Amino acid sequence: MRFRYALKEAMSGFRKSKLSSFASIFVLFISLLAIGMFAVAGYNLNRLIKTIKGKVEVEVFIKDGRTSEQIDSLKKIVMSFNEVEDVFYISKEEAAKIFEKEFGENIFNVLDFNPLPASFKIKLKEEFRTLHGVESLVRKLKKIPDFEDVKYRRALLGIIERRFRILSQVFFAAGILLSVVSILLIVNTIRLTIYAKRKLIKIMQLVGATRGFIVLPFLIQGFLQGLIGGFFSALTIYVVVKIIIPQLPDDVISSINVSDLFFPVLIFLGCFLGFAGSWISARKYITYKLLP
Predict the structure, then answer these.
(1) What residue numbers bound the domain in which 228 lies?
(2) ABC3 transporter permease C-terminal domain: from which residue to which, for each copy (predicted)?
């Protein structure tokens, strides 16, 4: 009974402040749409970076003259490092074939000997595919006297991590800003509704209605505004990401995706922002003392 009354009053609040309610829902929709797009971009950027980092390898060159037993021993040492997921051995002969494949020139047509060293290509565990993780491994490898040189894409890793850090901070700041704007607009809408119902609230206070009974309709109104804004923003992103983008011919663009869990989370965020805005407004403008 109490909830039914609160829901009825919440719907009445929509009718009495149509313009501000619509403005709140629309701005909340736009804000959540932007937040959702930032989240989709961040999610797919993270996937792309993981894919790129998965291809980053450390190559260590072995000094000439090492026997197969020594090479096996070196491989076991490298495999024992925490950062290492797998090690692939490339012999001098295999290095010559790779050279010919990449440059289209048989090295023996230029030289009468093979100057290319044998090497290990090292794949790192996912948690160590960072500049810090790679450099930690490289320091260990350089201490082994049987290794002549160590090569890795330091500059590429540095650029990836810096750019990703900057973009993450921008996305996070934009999300916070849009959330605050949404809450403030909900606060203003509920404030206008409270003002429109100030006489009714005063009467309810006089007859002894509890604070919770008075406040509940406004909380429901804010919650519903958030629910509507969240639902339509989630629906829009779903249509774009799940239906439109997969039809596009560009492989990179069509690979954009997001977890199905994302959509209910976005709706929940809308409900939370709406509820938070209405709670702040009700707490500020509905006091224990009688309204004037």
Answers:
(1) 2-51+160-285
(2) 173-287
